[in-house]
Amino acid sequence: MIRVLVVEDNKDNLMLISDVLMMLRYDVITALNGVEGVEKAVAELPNLILMDLSLPQMDGWTAAKTIKQNPVSAHIPIIALTAHAMVGDREKALESGCDDYLSKPINIVELRTKLAMYLQPDAS
Questions:
Q1: CA angle, 82 as apex, 115 and 72 as ends, to 5°?
Q2: Which tens digits make up the pLDDT trace of 61-109?
Q3: DSSP one-letter code for 16
Q4: How far is CA 83 from the centre of its chain?
Q5: Cα dihedral: 5, 75, 99, 123 (round 10)
Q6: What backbone phi and psi angles, to 5 degrees, belong to 59?
Q7: For residue 118, what are the contacts with CB-CB under 8 A and spacing of at least 6?
């Protein structure tokens, strides 16, 4: 089963994203802050991470950079999922180690497209 780690501190957004991912038949792992996100990325080794950038304890930019600097988790694609949609925010997310960027509110069609770009269908 393909596993996706969702790092999101807003419980409503977390529930919405998780529901969409489960509907698409992904196994969902969740974290409510950047520190927990880094810990779960290394411990669980998900196939992909959806990372909010405005997080408590450790922001998403720092969490992404930390995950990408660890040889154990550096290969995991990270998609920034954020309300930061101003000029330069996408570039800042990519510079921090995110592989891609989606702005909130979530567009489910766009999310599915990004997931398909980074994840292969489960052959089992």
A1: 60
A2: 999 999 999 999 999 999 998 886 667 778 888 899 999 999 888 899 9
A3: H
A4: 13
A5: -60
A6: -70, 165
A7: 47, 48, 77, 79, 99, 100
DSSP-derived secondary structure letter, 55? -
Could you give the domains of the chain? Answer: 3-118 (3.40.50.2300)
pTM of the model: 0.92
Q: Which amino acid is at 73?
A: S
Among candidate residues 28, 33, 23, 89, the one with its CA nearest the CA of residue 66: 33
Sequence-ordered alpha helix ranges (H) in 3-122 = 11-23, 34-44, 60-69, 89-95, 108-118
Residue 109: burial class (beta carbons within 10 Å; 0-12, 13-18, 19+): exposed
